[in-house]
Amino acid sequence: MSGSVRLTMAQALVRYLAAQYVHDDASGEALPLFGGVFAIFGHGNVAGLGEALYACRDRLPTYRAHNEQAMANTAIAYAKAHMRRRMMAVTTSIGPGATNLLTSAALAHVNRLPVLFLPGDIFVSRAPDPVLQQLEDFGDGTASVNDCFRTVSRYFDRIVRPEQLLTALPRALHVLTDPALCGPVTLALPQDVQAEAYDWPEEFFTERVHRFRRMPPAPEDIAAAAQLLRQARQPVMIVGGGALYARASQAVQRFAELHGVPVAETQAGKGTLAWHHPLQLGPAGVCGSSAANELLAEADVILAVGTRLQDFTTGSHALYRQARIVTFNVNGHDALKGGHTQVLADAAAGLDALSAALTGWHGETAWRQHATQLADDWRTTVERITGQRELPPGRLPYDGEIIGAVQRSRADSASSDIVVCAAGTLPAELEKLWRTETPGGYHMEYGYSCMGYEIAGGLGVKMARPEREVIVMLGDGSYLMLNSELATSVMLGHKLIVIVLDNRGFGCINRLQQACGGAPFNNMLEDCLHGPDGVPSIDFAAHARALGAQAEHVHTIAELEQALQRARAATRTYVIAIDTDHRRTTEAGGSWWEVAVPEVSERAAVQQARRDYELAKQQQHR
Predict the structure, then answer these.
(1) The whole model's pTM is what?
(2) CA-CA-CA-CA torsion for 488, 490, 496, 502, nearest 10 degrees?
């Protein structure tokens, strides 16, 4: 019978986290499940949890950041870059530090990504009630700001007695490591309980190695899917983030090649199949390629693998209303979204089982040939756009031309680069134009499309993949929202290449505003003037240098290519700013996206946009 060890609640929590390992399929080794803890200390966590983390710093590293939301985004990106196999914890104080995590919690929840939130909480004893930063609910004495986490957490618990960890921690780990449940977990930690001692069973801290098992499909589900596909003449596969997290790239390629099924991708699934594969159609939907969208509009059966079929993928359910859909997903909620045939299974296991059930079947030869021709045409389009180097005098570059310069800046290819982005115009341009041969070479947070994720997310990716060049691409709007982790990247010694595309405002939403008939208003800096001094001239390079990064401003594509060589040779974070044209975008590809237009307006442009909107809605699948 094992003995016991007397520890505080915080010490037990830290020791338990440090004892969790994960089996790495590639190396066969057991690696720490938690890569570390990001902490910004305050009076709600510095004494209890801070002391515990200090004592365990050699086994469970603690990292300090400059903003709570940013450090949580870094932790989330770290987990995404590890395909959800490894993760981090995040701790804050009880007030604004805790609520600063809420945006990140929603981001992790939407994207099904694991992160452990450990916000401090108010005194259970209520002796100093109200303590500094305490929110007082006049009708509920048990409430604190941490109750806000309940709706944005997959699992929530408030630890009001030390021994509650004995059940709370295994439950938390189950959610964090389960493919279907995966998402953010919040354990609210009252500061007095953090410091309380308990006699813990030593076996609670026994090292445990987690293995990510593949959920097998039910035979009857495979039979139903196979029956539907055998009737298909013009099938298309759409792969989402679940295919990457399942490490199903080889299974996707095998299925596509064996059965002649062309493959489209979502933002989260981009990179599952190499960009130059003959059956790779490119992205689907609103940010989609002309190849993918043309075939999706003609498909009779769509095999949706590991995707939650978000509106950007489906063209707000107007892109392929004629097709029947087979969904493969580990999450039953997401599997139901196809509305036709569901297979609850791991992507790789499910595709291999379906392939076995479809022995001898493949899509029409003419359909496959049509798909490969369209895919070739799309790659030619991408090459033409990204290959543009010389612009007419006085013409600013746009995102597509800058993407081309970034990918040309490697002597061989950009296949080992990881690009990171989240919001604005760039997600559409990068999904269409970025070329990656390796799973994980494209890191886009587009489930929540959170402005400010980019630099912090890039840091998390670099911490997960230090051997890769991590290139953060973002607009001036996102940079101004959250840039503090440039300083953190320098402090931690994790070099990023950051490219700031300065279009002097929120160019993406400005275009959307006008597409809906609105006047340019409150988006571009020139449309937001209230003072006498005109449009502010923001020197992003000077700002980045003030945070410890190397930085420069360039004016042309040629200057950008030269700066990228200096950035690649640098040993610390390097920021390159360049002015861009907010009016130009890649016209090829794309599909309708539902944005509600007012029924009543005095503006003729809005009235026309409303008529166009009503016509487009008639194409929606209901």
Answers:
(1) 0.97
(2) 70
